[in-house]
Design goal:
Order of helices and strands: HHHHHHH
CATH class: Mainly Alpha
Radius of gyration: 16 Å
Number of domains: 1
Distance between the termini: 6 Å
Structural class: mainly alpha
CATH superfamily: MFS general substrate transporter like domains
CATH architecture: Up-down Bundle
Shape: globular
Number of helices: 7
Largest sheet: none
CATH topology: Growth Hormone, Chain: A
Helix content: over 70%
Number of strands: 0
Length: 185
Amino acid sequence: MWKLAFLVFIGMGTYNAVATWLQPILAHFGEGDSAGNLIAVLTFAGVLGAAVLPTAAARRDRRRTVLFVALGVSATTFLAIAAVHNLVWLGIWLFCAGFVLLAALPVVLDWSDIHVGPERQGGAVGFLMMAGNLGGLLLVLLVQAVIGNPYLALGAMALVTLAGLPIVLRLPSTGTTAIVGERSA
């Protein structure tokens, strides 16, 4: 459960950091007025992804793959935003990041059910959501510390998402396996 909690910490934290700090980051590049629409694109894509990816991942037993892709695409998005400031470019990258990043939460919640069993699912979801909310708070504060330089802010978000990749790689390759080998929270 701790590995999943760390991934939710990163995912929800990253989303909150983007939603909080995209406007001042883009303002530095002369595109600050478009931040609200781009956050809407990120969120809309996330709703689409959450409607499609978790079911497909569960059906094909590719939960770990979805989580790996979500972190990789998110990190790449922040680097792409730092490199090119064209509005269409930003929209495409944020759509891609939203599609996989927001879909990662239901994938993790599904995996937690396999890990702890349906009788303890409520407690597991509560634990994971608390980890996510903590990530939302702390990652927003982390980015705030470097928001004066948009490249550092985007780099910090990219590094945080990349920090999740070793955790994902330590998860079982199949989602039907208990994450620790026994059913405990």
